[in-house]
Amino acid sequence: MSDVLVLSALEKRYNRGKPNEIVVLQNLSLRIPKGQVTALVAPSGAGKSTLLHIAGLLDTPDSGTVELEGTDLSGARDGVRTAARREKLGFVYQFHHLLPEFSATENIVLPQLANGVARKAAEARAADLLGRVGLTSRAAHRPSALSGGEQQRVAFCRALANGPSLLLADEPTGNLDPTTSDTVFDVLMELVRETGLSALIATHNLALAAKMDRVLRLDAGGLTEE
Ligand SMILES: Nc1ncnc2c1ncn2[C@@H]1O[C@H](COP(=O)(O)OP(=O)(O)OP(=O)(O)O)[C@@H](O)[C@H]1O
């Protein structure tokens, strides 16, 4: 099976049946093959977050299917969706959302412990990931002692901690100044490439989008390839 994520004929409306009903996604389909990094660009309000939430099993479509590694999870029970989210998906947001009272290492170890990994193995993986993003010397620091770019690099490591099949990212460097954003984005791309990860990365930055394998534009409820 070569597709990691297959979204088919998704439809999503808000305020269904009311005068202020909005159709956000309409007959939207998307395939992400294994190892492919896809950029998602969209004007503000076009439904980018809605699409990422549905792909990330945080929200459900009104109709259509969400297949992750060949299994349709659109109508699955909450427990099944939560387990799939923990085991198969990695998330990065515009803000790092690291736990402030824990070190960089612990922020990467904790999701692994929650997934049943032994502490020693989890610490070894955290050390490996921090090394890949150039943060070995910052491993014991809490988020407040790290720069914005460093915090975001730790967040990338945390997203990859459990070896996901798919990375979903929403403006992963959107909170950084333009120069830092470029550097940190390159770190993310290298990490994704080295691990052979598939990814769907939303960005407003067309120069960053151009570094990915494919650019899709979300507009008027559907996707078009650039
Ligand atoms: N819970 C909700 N109830 C009603 N309308 C909503 C809800 N969530 C989002 N919307 C509307 O749906 C549309 C798409 O929202 P969404 O957050 O997906 O956009 P977006 O493309 O991520 O925007 P941005 O780039 O500005 O964050 C917007 O018009 C928004 O106002």
From TrEMBL:
Q: Which InterPro entries match?
A: AAA+_ATPase, ABC_transporter-like_ATP-bd, ABC_transporter-like_CS, ABC_transpr_LolD-like, MacB-like_ATP-bd, P-loop_NTPase
Please name the PROSITE patterns in this protein's record. Answer: ABC_TRANSPORTER_1, ABC_TRANSPORTER_2
Gene Ontology, cellular component aspect? plasma membrane
Q: Which GO terms describe its biological process?
A: lipoprotein localization to outer membrane; protein localization to outer membrane
Recorded source organism is: Thioclava dalianensis
Record CDD domains: ABC_MJ0796_LolCDE_FtsE (cd03255)
Tell me which domain of life the UniProt entry assigns to the organism this sequence originates from.
Bacteria
Could you tell me one molecular function GO term of this UniProt entry? transmembrane transporter activity
| Keywords annotated in UniProt | ATP-binding, Nucleotide-binding, Transport
What's this protein's name?
ABC transporter
Family affiliation: Belongs to the ABC transporter superfamily.
Q: Which residues form a coiled coil?
A: none
Q: Where is the ABC transporter domain?
A: 5-226
The answer to whether the entry has keyword Transport is: yes
